Amino acid sequence: MTDTELRVNGLRVLSDQLGIVEAERFVSLILKEPFDYTKWRQELYEDVSLEELHDRAAQKHEEDFEG
User: Do 13 and 29 have their domain in common?
Assistant: First the structure.
């Protein structure tokens, strides 16, 4: 996937999930504030057990294939 395709697809997903106004607001926030994606991902689930992560992933998987 090219960088352009990634940008287009990413904005499409944001717009579909958040609506166009909130998607643009999100992008604006990301551009204005220093944001370390790697650090954020490392800290995102640090207080969640592996079992709970597994359960969440399994539930999401089921939802994606049911609907």
Answer: yes
Q: Are 23 and 15 in contact (CB under 8 A)?
A: yes
Domain range for residue 46? 36-67
The reply to whether 2 and 22 lie within a common domain is: yes
State the total domains in the chain: 2
Which of these, 9, 2, 33, 36, lies nearest to 23 by C-alpha position?
9
Q: Residue 62: its pLDDT value, please? A: 86
pLDDT: which is higher, 42 or 17? 17
Confidence (pTM)? 0.50
Q: For the chain, what is the HEC assignment?
A: CCHHHHHHHHHHHHHHHHCHHHHHHHHHHHHHCCCCHHHHHHHHCCCCCHHHHHHHHHHHHHHHHHC
